Amino acid sequence: MNLIVQGLEVHTRDLKEIAKLTGAARIERVADEAFRLRDAKPADGVPAYCQAARLDHAFVPESARLTDFGLVVMDMDSTLITIECIDEIADLMGIKPQVAAVTAATMRGELDFIESITRRVALFAGLPEDLLARVYAERLKLSPGAERLLETLRRNGIHTFLVSGGFTFFTDRLHSRLALDGAHANVLEIEDGKITGRILGEIVDAEGKARALREARDRLGLKREQVLAIGDGANDLKMMAEAGASVAFRAKPVVKAQASCALDFVG
Fold first, then answer.
1. 130 Cβ partners below 8 Å, 6+ apart?
2. pTM score, two decimals?
């Protein structure tokens, strides 16, 4: 195994200490602030040391290559983008604290997703559709490194698919803007230019996300181990379980505990 260590700032003294903990044969710089520790052995002290030093780390088989994958499936809110769109809609209404508290509890796995999103969307009844455009134009930002990641995946012939418990108003625009290969999300009902407070069709919950991943994988003729999933909330866990490898990005503890690796500090 190799140990990959990344951080916004990586100090030599930390690399040497981690190499000592893991018995690594040597340290190699592989990118800006990213290092490979060759022939490293898992050690109990590594996670705590890296957390204290604000470093992300992952043990990776020596033989692993990015091109082992054919599909990357990612969540949208707080993963591909920095915001929770539903919370920002609520903010423009002046009720963000109430809605954000429900969102956070749902992402921690404390509330049923379908009940949660149904309750939150009902609060938007009567709002003008223009409010969604304001959130997209004024508040939606890509997560650091997102465009570089997508460019690298395209260059290596890897398909990209966005799967969200959010809304197609946002996923459709990101699909086009970022040249993604597909997107799947909830459809907000809009009548006469106003949000009705209802979702059309089947709600994309945890099982819906997992099903979307399986369908994309099967269309491409890929095996489970050729799929990488990226998410941050409890409703991503079933989707991540369908992939050969998974990344918890700035994620809740319940997600980090079940993912192949976690990114807490870098893009």
1. 193
2. 0.93
Inter-residue contact 244 to 222 (CB < 8 Å):
no
Q: Which of the residues are catalytic?
A: 75, 77
- Tell me the pLDDT tens digit for each residue of 41-79: 999 999 999 999 999 999 999 999 999 999 999 999 999
Structure tokens at 110: 């404390």
Comparing CA positions, the residue from 164, 170, 181 lying closest to residue 239 is 164
* Residues of the chain scoring pLDDT < 70: none
Amino acid identity for residue 10 in this structure: V
Spatial separation of the C-alpha atoms in residues 247 and 145, rounded to whole Å: 14
* CB hemisphere CA count around 235 (13 angstroms): 30
- Give the tokens for residue 237: 């866990």
User: CB 265: neighbour CB atoms within 10 A?
Assistant: 17
DSSP assignment of 221-257: T--GGGEEEEE-SGGGHHHHHTSSEEEEES--HHHHT
Q: How many CB atoms lie within 10 A of CB 242?
A: 19
Coil/strand/helix, residue 10: coil
Q: Which of 95, 226, 118 is nearest to 165 (CA)?
A: 118
Half-sphere exposure of 58 (CA within 13 A, CB side): 21
What's the rounded Cα separation, in Å, for the pair 263 and 267? 7
* Cβ atoms of residues 73 and 150 within 8 Å: no
Q: According to the model, what pLDDT value does residue 32 have?
A: 86
Cβ–Cβ contacts within 10 Å for residue 256, how many? 16
**What per-residue confidence (pLDDT) applies to 258?**
95
